[in-house]
Every structure is written in C-alpha cells, then in structure tokens.
Design a protein that fits this description.
- Keywords: Membrane, Transmembrane, Transmembrane helix.
- The chain contains three helices and no strands.
- It has 89 residues and is mostly helical.
- The chain has one domain.
Length: 89
Amino acid sequence: MRKMKLNEKAWANASAVFMGILYIFCALGIVLFPGISKAVAGSWFHGIDLGLIWTGGVRPNFLLGLVTAVVLSWIGGWVFAWLYNKLTK
C-alpha cells in the first residue's frame, strides 16, 4: 500500500492562512457581537470571570496577535506535516 506524504511547506502555508482568516473573523465577531463573544470566551475559560478583564473591543495589539498567531500556526503546521511523514514511514 502506498503511503501518502504531506508537503510540509504547503501544509504550513495552509495552516497559517487558515489561522489568519480565523483570527480576523474572531476579531470581527468581538466588535459586532460583543455579548455573544464574551459568553463564548467565558465558556472556554472554566472558573475565570472574564467580566473583570473584558474590554469589549479589539485591542491595539490586534496586529501583534495576528502576526504571532499566523507565525506559530505556520511552525505548528510544518512540524505536524514533518512528524506525520516520519511516523508513516
């Protein structure tokens, strides 16, 4: 049986683009639907009251968050594809 090999660079690029799009839509969701966004985020952080730190808007560090999320997603995507290829040999 022929085993599929993932292209590390393509997988990393796809991961980074997907994360960038997801990050932007998430920021838009916070701006357009702050109440729902706060409720959803609060459900992810068990036992933490986000009301104490919630600002209700996209922070000035949006660009820093976007860049770091995209870069880390690229690295994670590359490592995932590399590891997959190693484990399927």
